[in-house]
Amino acid sequence: MQKILIIRLSALGDVAMTIPVIYSLAMNFPMHEITVLSRQQFRPLFQNLPSNVRFISADLGGKHKGIIGLNKLFAELKTENFNYIADFHSVLRTKYLRFRFKLTGIPTASINKARKMKKKLTRRNGKTFNQLKLVFVRYYEVLERLGFIFQLNFESVLSDNKPDLSEIVPLTGEKENLKWIGIAPFAQHKGKIYPIKSQLKVIEHFANDKRVKVFIFGGGQTEKTITDGWAAVYPSIVSMVGKLNMSQELLLMSQLDVMESMDSGNMHMASLVGTTVVSVWGATHPYAGFMGWNQSIQNAIQVDLACRPCSIYGQKPCYRGDYACLNNVSPDMIINRIEKILF
Predict the structure, then answer these.
(1) Is residue 320 over pLDDT 80?
(2) Listed range (113-127, 130-144, 155-169) with the worst mean pLDDT
């Protein structure tokens, strides 16, 4: 048996994108033990993986904070006697840990983030507008460099075709003959968020369709206030903000007929349970390699602009000042794509 440590500390979407690769590795190498090092809040993503996958949390805001904390973390990890270190993150913290392991003679490999290619894709003038490798491929290549060759054969983190829904039914009700739509209208950065006024038109359209029920996903008090307000106006809308833990969110997402999401962690969570996602892209672009697992580019809603993409993560302010990449996406573009999938 070989012991493999895979490190990816943040963020939600990036950690979620490790799942198809780790699952496939575990299934193809059941004789090996795979340990994932990440933050505690991401543990639920790994609960339903094969039995040879285990999770260790890094307390980066507490006992593992700073260089002293990283030394403590390394000392704890060293006792596990890992044979291989796969760094899926390649930031200062993980580079330091990788360096410490390398000094002990343990084979290590890290992700190639293709920073130069991403800069060419997002620069204002003279873009090199090409599809970059999917992040899943980049994760796989880390393991490949360590000698692990296998097929990416992941389908869903929920292997049970009839999962136990008793945890969520009190909030969702029975599905019966309705079509269930999930809408995740928020993201971390403004360059990824479809304007709320336009999003509300999409929500209103489906709220008035007696064939469907709409579930809104999000997090935080501000988002809860907004979505609770929508739910108060439209009886067919249910705000799930603040009502479910991550495991329950995955369970609900697995029951959706379609999910509308920004380029965000919710897109990747829905992808992990095999749900079709209609994704909305603004400052970012699928060409950067962050499309959800097994999602179709046909369901990526976006407008062609010479300035797109201007950012990999959507955090840069719009140099035009008008966020045309998002404001020029009409509600009908989203509605028509969702209805094509549903009906």
Answers:
(1) yes
(2) 155-169
* CB neighbour list of residue 131: distance below 8 Å, 6 or more residues apart: 286, 287, 289
Q: State residue 88 phi and psi, 5-degree precision.
A: -90, 5
Q: In what order do the strands lie in the sheet with 300-301?
A: 237-239, 212-216, 179-184, 258-262, 277-280, 300-301
Architecture category of domain 3-145 in CATH = 3-Layer(aba) Sandwich (3.40)
List the chain domain ranges: 3-145, 172-342
Q: Do the domains 3-145 and 172-342 sit in the same CATH topology, yes or no?
A: yes
CA separation for the pair 41, 25 (Å, rounded) = 23
pTM, two decimal places: 0.96
Burial class (CB in 10 A: 0-12, 13-18, 19+), 204: middle
CATH class of 172-342: alpha beta
Using an 8 Å Cβ cutoff, are 231 and 237 in contact? yes
Give mean pLDDT, residues 217-239. 94
Going edge to edge, which strands form the sheet with 108-110? 53-57, 33-38, 3-7, 84-87, 108-110
